[in-house]
Design goal:
The complex is a heterodimer of chains A (105) and B (162). Chain A is built from three helices and one strand, in the order βααα. Chain A is mostly helical and 105 residues long. The longest helix of chain A has 36 residues. Chain A starts with a strand and ends in a 13-residue tail after the last helix. Chain B has two domains: 92 residues, NADH-ubiquinone/plastoquinone oxidoreductase chain 6, subunit NuoJ (Four Helix Bundle (Hemerythrin (Met), subunit A)); 40 residues. Chain B is built from six helices and one strand. In chain B, helix 2 packs antiparallel against helix 3. The longest helix of chain B is centred in the middle third of the chain and has 26 residues. The chains are: A mainly alpha (105), B mainly alpha (162). Chains A and B meet through strand 1, helix 1, helix 2 and helix 3 of A and helix 1, helix 2, helix 3, helix 4 and strand 1 of B.
Chain lengths: 105, 162
C-alpha cells in the first residue's frame, strides 16, 4: 500500500493555486489567463483526489466522483473560454485584455 | 524516505516548475508545451495516488483535448505562430498576493499528520458504480451544462454577426 505525506499535497495544491492566481493577475494575453485558470482548477481537482485517497472507503468514492465531474466542467470552461477568445479576436483584432476596455468606460 | 515519497517530491517539483514556466516564457507555443508537460505530470501524480481512472482521464481530457484546443486558439489568433508576446513584468503586488495566498492556505489547514499516510486504492469498477449510481444526477447535469456551453460557443463564433 502506498504511503504519502498529506502536508506535501496540501503545499503542492496551494502552490499551484498561487501560481494560477499570479498568472490571472499579471498576464495580458487572454489565452494565458485561461491557462492560469486551468492551473488553479487542476489544484482544486487534485485536492479532491488526494483527500479521497487519504480518507478511503465511501468518502474516497465520493471524492473521486466529484473529481471526474469537475474535469468535465473544466473542459467545458475551456471550450467556452476559447469561443470568447475567438469572438474577441474577430471583433477587436486582438486578445490583449489591456487593449480591450470598452466595458470599463 | 521511501521510493514513493521521493517519486512524489520529484513529481511535485516538476508540477510547480512547469506551471511557473508556462506562465513565464514569452513564446506562446512554448507555454503550450510546458502546460502539456504539467498535465502529464499531474496524471502521473494521480497514478501514484492509486487513482488510475483519473490518471487516464487527465491524460485524455487535459493533455489531449485541452492542449490541442489551446494550440488551436493560438493558431487562429496570430498571424505568425512563433511570435513573442509583449513583455509583461513580474509585478510586485500580484507576486506578494500569490505568496500570501500560499502561506494562508498552508497555515489554515490546521494540524495534519507529518508522517506518510496510507493511500486507499480505488478500482475503476467501484468508481463507476458510484459515478452512475449516487452521482448519476451530477453526470446528467454535466451533460446539460456541456450542451448549453457548446450551443453558447457556437452562438459566439457564428458567421454573420453585426
Amino acid at each position: 500500500m502506498t504511503s504519502l505525506p498529506i502536508v506535501g499535497f496540501v503545499a503542492l495544491s496551494a502552490g499551484l493555486l498561487a501560481i494560477g492566481l499570479f498568472g490571472v493577475l499579471t498576464r495580458r494575453n487572454l489565452i494565458l489567463i485561461l491557462i492560469s485558470v486551468e492551473i488553479a482548477m487542476n489544484a482544486a481537482i487534485l485536492n479532491f483526489v488526494y483527500f479521497a485517497g487519504f480518507l478511503g472507503g465511501a468518502p474516497a468514492l465520493r471524492g473521486q466522483s466529484i473529481a471526474v465531474v469537475l474535469v468535465g466542467f473544466a473542459a467545458t470552461e475551456v471550450a467556452v473560454g476559447l469561443a470568447i477568445v475567438l469572438a474577441l479576436h474577430r471583433v477587436r483584432g486582438t486578445i490583449n485584455v489591456a487593449e480591450t476596455s470598452e466595458l470599463r468606460e | 524516505m521511501s521510493l514513493e515519497e521521493l517519486a512524489f517530491l520529484a513529481l511535485a517539483a516538476v508540477a510547480l516548475g512547469t506551471a511557473a514556466a508556462a506562465l513565464l516564457v514569452r513564446e506562446l507555443v512554448h507555454t503550450i508545451l510546458w502546460i502539456a508537460l504539467f498535465f502529464v505530470d499531474l496524471s502521473a501524480i494521480y497514478f501514484l495516488l492509486d487513482a488510475p481512472f483519473l490518471g487516464v482521464l487527465q491524460l485524455g481530457v487535459y493533455a489531449g483535448a485541452v492542449t490541442v484546443l489551446l494550440l488551436f486558439g493560438i493558431m487562429v489568433t496570430r498571424k505568425r505562430i512563433f511570435s513573442r508576446d509583449a513583455a509583461t513584468g513580474i509585478g510586485a503586488v500580484p507576486l506578494a498576493l500569490a505568496v500570501v495566498t500560499f502561506i494562508f492556505l498552508v497555515a489554515s489547514v490546521g494540524e495534519l499528520p507529518q508522517a506518510p499516510t496510507p493511500v486507499a486504492s480505488i478500482a475503476p469498477q467501484y468508481l463507476s458504480e458510484a459515478l452512475f449510481g449516487t452521482f448519476g444526477p451530477w453526470l446528467l447535469l454535466l451533460g446539460l451544462v456541456m450542451l448549453v456551453a457548446v450551443s453558447g460557443a457556437i452562438y459566439l463564433v457564428r458567421e454573420g454577426r453585426e
